[in-house]
Amino acid sequence: MFSLKIRIFVIAGLLLVAASAIAAQTATDYMKMGNDAYDQGKFDEAIANYNKAIQLDPNYAAAYENRGNAYDDKGDHDQAIADYTRALQLDGKSHLTWYNRGLAYQNKKQYDLAIADYNRSIQIDPNYPSATLNRGLAYLDKRDLDSAIADFTRTIQIDLKNKKAWFNRGLSYYDKRNYDASIADFSQAIQIDPNYTKAYFNRGLGYYYKNNFDDSIADNTRAIQLDPGYTNAWFNRGLSYFHKDRYDEALADYNKVLELDAKYAKAYLNRADVYCKKGDTARASADYDKAGELDPSLAKSERICAKSQ
């Protein structure tokens, strides 16, 4: 009986301690638990804890912001914006909150609202590279290439090793058909990250439009080595092989494209051109027809077999 009494006493004591601990939990405690859950990717659990923090302290600006982050990562951008807005009402001096709301607007493709929020973030902290980078991306999506280039340049000035800034400025120059500048920027991105697949691919495009087919082939080959399923890299390497009259290699690349994506209409069109060059008009005709079937806009494409007859 003595031992039993001790056991009951210990259990009761544990219950008392547990009850006391629960009663003592504060908004800060729930905030920490929410942050821990968020860091583990448990967004619903994080939101539940942030809810409790806000219940205990309705003016806890950081809890609204962090709950907004969890909602945004769940893809609920509207709820995220609502939480960021409340956080800003409580503390409008946080450059990160303006930045995060800008990201949420950008995720909704509301680029003007995103840019306005990035502007506020940059006013508070002019040296925050993520804000200038993402404002540049918003300008790029709006096709305001000069503003995008200015923001990517500013990002590079703040953070010379920011590969995304070099890469996206390269894209902007490419869209302006300034291929030399784009190639230089993609090269910088590759220097920072030698395994930057998209940088090789896009630099290969720049070389292609400068009729530098050898370097284009080399860059697409490197992209394929890094990502063997990179369909567009196989396709573009096939283009360069074709322009160098290396028809067997072009044919092999287009075959690979269609192995990866049997509905890639332009690959049928380009493979048809290769068959024409190799004198296989039957296969060429079949591929031309297939290209037009998959993409009616290609049905009227010039058939080089007919041109050569």
Biggest β-sheet: count, sense, barrel?
none
Low-confidence stretches: 1-23
Gap from first CA to last CA:
108 Å
Radius of gyration: 29 Å
- Shape annotation: elongated
Percentage of helical residues? over 70%
By helix and strand content, what is the structural category? mainly alpha
State mean pLDDT (0 to 100 scale): 91
Query: Can you count the beta strands?
Result: 0
SSE sequence, one letter per element? HHHHHHHHHHHHHHHHHH
Number of helices: 18
The portion of residues forming beta strands comes to under 5%
Protein described:
The protein has 309 residues and is an all-alpha fold. The relative contact order is 0.04. It is built from 18 helices and no strands. It is 79% helix and 0% strand. The protein has helices at 2-24, 27-39, 43-56, 61-73, 77-90, 95-107, 111-124, 129-141, 145-158, 163-175, 179-192, 197-209, 213-226, 231-243, 247-260, 265-277, 281-294, 304-308. The chain is elongated, with a radius of gyration of 29 Å. The longest helix is centred in the N-terminal third of the chain and has 23 residues, at 2-24.
Structure at a glance:
The protein is built from 18 helices and no strands. It is mainly α and 309 residues long.
Tags for this entry?
309 residues; 18 helices; mainly alpha; disordered N terminus; single chain
Topology summary:
Blueprint: H1 2-24, H2 27-39, H3 43-56, H4 61-73, H5 77-90, H6 95-107, H7 111-124, H8 129-141, H9 145-158, H10 163-175, H11 179-192, H12 197-209, H13 213-226, H14 231-243, H15 247-260, H16 265-277, H17 281-294, H18 304-308
Helix pairs in contact: 2-3, 2-4, 3-4, 4-5, 5-6, 6-7, 7-8, 8-9, 8-10, 9-10, 10-11, 11-12, 12-13, 12-14, 13-14, 14-15, 15-16, 16-17
